[in-house]
């Protein structure tokens, strides 16, 4: 439980730091370099968080699917559908990252 609180505090600190950085850059003259930098940060966060979520989901769902198939082999097709939906989350993150970079 302590590790969970540490990660929550770490992500909260990173979010506040990124928000404050955006406000600081907004005070100065806007430059193309700052705008492209924020685009890259946003695209990286989109693909990174989508990949992280898909990886955690894939690990838990795959373990459960293998356990279910060991008991009843006819559950293979249902398990495969859930795994495909989880993989789609990572693909959505990749598409959003490309949309951010091309905007």
Walkthrough of the structure:
- The protein is an all-alpha fold and 103 residues long.
- The chain is built from three helices and no strands.
- The protein has a domain at 32-103: F1F0 ATP synthase subunit C (F1FO ATP Synthase), CATH 1.20.20.
- The mean pLDDT is 83.
List the helices and strands and how they pair.
Elements: H1 2-27, H2 32-71, H3 76-102
Helix pairs in contact: 2-3
CATH fold descriptor of one domain: F1FO ATP Synthase
Helix/strand order? HHH
Strand content range: under 5%
Q: How big is the Rg?
A: 19 Å
What summary fits the major beta sheet? none
User: Briefly, what CATH class of one domain?
Assistant: Mainly Alpha
- CATH architecture term of one domain: Up-down Bundle
Taken from the alpha-carbon principal axes, the silhouette is elongated
* CATH superfamily placement of one domain: F1F0 ATP synthase subunit C
Oligomer: single chain
| Contiguous uncertain segments of 5+ residues | none
In short:
This protein is mainly α.
Distinctive features:
single chain, 3 helices, mainly alpha, F1FO ATP Synthase, 103 residues, elongated
